[in-house]
Amino acid sequence: MILGDLGAEVIKVERPGGGDDTRTWGPPFIGSESVYFLSVNRNKKSLAVDLKHPRGAAIIQELAGVCDVLVENFLPGKLDQMSLGFEDDGEPVRPGVAMTDLATGLYAHGAIMAALLQRLKTGRGLHIDCNLLSSQVSCLSHIAANYLNAGQEARRWGTAHESIVPYQGFRTKDGHIVVAAGNDRQFVRVCQVLELMELTEEPKYRTNRLRVQNRRQLLHVLSQRFLQENTADWLKRFRGSGVPVGPISSIQEVFSEPQVRHNGLIQEMDHPTAGHVAVPGPAVLFSSFSPAGPTPPPVIGQHTVQVLRDTLSYSDDIIKELLESKAVAQSEAL
Description:
Order of helices and strands: HEEEHEHHHHHEEHHHHEHHEEHHE
Organism: Nothobranchius korthausae
Protein name: Chromosome 7 open reading frame 10
Distance between the termini: 23 Å
Family: Belongs to the CoA-transferase III family.
GO molecular function, one term: succinate-hydroxymethylglutarate CoA-transferase activity
Low-confidence stretches: 91-98
Keywords: Transferase
Structural class: alpha+beta
CATH superfamily of the largest domain: Crotonobetainyl-coa:carnitine coa-transferase, domain 1
Shape: elongated
CATH topology of the largest domain: Rossmann fold
Strand content: 5-15%
Radius of gyration: 26 Å
Number of strands: 10
Largest sheet: 3 strands, mixed
CATH class of the largest domain: Alpha Beta
């Protein structure tokens, strides 16, 4: 989807009939369309192909020959069974758990861009192994390093930080605020804003290492103080302090924030069956160009005939034959 945001032609290959599993994930639904599916499938075309049909597998082989990138998420070895695999010496790694799907997509986006640059330099394509397990482990960051270098097992900290104090969410009179004092100077500024300068004179809070060791007492004092004012009042007090702070917002508050709309983070479009839909937009803005407006997520097989005719140059007779043999399917919803 990110590559589609940047202008790439993205062809989503789905099985005829059911299509992508996420089309059924709900509620909520808009008409018969899953909001989950709509949120992650803009700027894509849908090609409905039966990969178990010999003609269907042949179509994907041809399509792979004219496309720059083939992305698949089958279990290891599954594509090889359909003669669609990539010859490679390394053993693939089985994907991990679903919570890392977004991170894996982001890693894959960067990897695809790097692979295209490598092909430009060498003239050779390559296979990218970007799996959920590797993404999960890579994203463990300093938590992994703590174990690998100090044998320190991870604990659950809620919104708090294992190695920095105060660096967490605090309850206020009407909500929550996150305060991230990443150094001793910022801790002093927090105490100034909270009018608790006596804490800066306490030897046990003088350095971050000492604050981590004595977090329970310090956080109790800070928590009691934050409860005395509203979130908006605290945000005003911290303005210009140099301390990173922010509210913990509800989803309604997030999309009421003017900066969110200014950054193009709400994308609205007209879907062929669901009507008007809105989804979160891309996170990146460019100084010298703006990507074209989004196209709505497709219905199953919406672009089958278009891809076969325009991308693979199939004749109308061949397309008709493929449709009649049920090797492919074209949406009848439009």
